[in-house]
Specification:
Layout: H1 2-74
């Protein structure tokens, strides 16, 4: 009986170790897929903010430029 109990205990220990490895593998796989997505999202938001900052001045000046072009075409 003692040998059977030892074998069962060893089997339980191996199963716990396998579960721990599986859990670690799943976490690492999740993080390796999640981190690039977060980096891409941050860069996209940052790029949008920079683009808006650069283009906002040009957008503000557009009505004046359009008026000047119309005056030039109409000969005013």
């Amino acid at each position: 009986m003692g040998q059977t109990e030892d074998l069962l205990q060893e089997l339980v220990n191996l199963k716990k170790e396998e579960m721990h490895r599986t859990r670690s593998y799943r976490w690492s796989k999740f993080l390796m897929s999640f981190i690039p997505m977060i980096i891409f999202l941050v860069l996209t938001i940052w790029g949008s903010i920079v683009a808006w900052d650069k283009l906002s001045g040009m957008i503000d000046q557009m009505p004046a430029q359009i008026q000047e072009q119309l005056k030039g075409k109409l000969g005013l």
